[in-house]
Amino acid sequence: DIQMTQSPSSLSASVGDRVTITCRASQSINIYLNWYQQKPGKAPQLLIYTASSLQSGAPSRFSGSGSGTDFILTISSLQPEDFATYYCQQSYTTPLTFGGGTKVEIK
Amino acid sequence: QVQLVESGGGVVQPGRSLRLSCAASGFSFSNYGIHWVRQAPGKGLEWVAVISYDGSNEYYADAVKGRFTISKDNSKNTVFLQMNSLRAEDTAVYYCAKGGNYQNYLDYWGQGTLVTVSS
Predict the structure, then answer these.
(1) Measured distance CA(A89)–CA(A103) in Å, rounded
(2) What is the per-residue pLDDT across B52-80, written as a single tens digit (0 to 9) for each?
(3) Cβ A43–B105 below 8 Å, yes or no?
(4) A38 contacts in B (CB within 8 Å)?
């Protein structure tokens, strides 16, 4: 199985900050990497698919980059509604696997 | 708009069975694969299973292989997850999610249904 490792596991940031979250795959997954946002008590929502494509309805302050084994999710200017947990997920092969999550908290 | 609604969760004793349903609307159901993903209390996301758009292919996580079965009824726009020989470690919120265009990103999710395995 492909292991997905996210870092950091949590971070504290202020409104307006630029935030980056990294995700590393245990083997090359080409560009088959997706990012989700989850708020407490809610289902996850797709933000970015195939590494850098912005899902319809997701704010443009979210962007993704990377290929192979290393990927980055960037929030250009953190907004109050962005405080949540973020997960990466590889869709290169089954079993699909998720990273452990990054919790973004208010500083 | 796309909607996915799970049902069938509840409290069940270890070793017993439960069947979850996922009713879909707002998209061409027979053209997309459907996934189940679970989340244990306070934990991260764990992929469980997927069924292809036409129901001809199924894939499972090792943790549930041989115990869970996914099926798809295109005439009823519904996906099922039959869960047998349930264990305490199967306790989680179970989400169904729609697969993307020819790819396994999960673009729409249901609200989830809680399964608690406890004696």
Answers:
(1) 15
(2) 999 999 999 999 999 999 999 999 999 99
(3) no
(4) 45
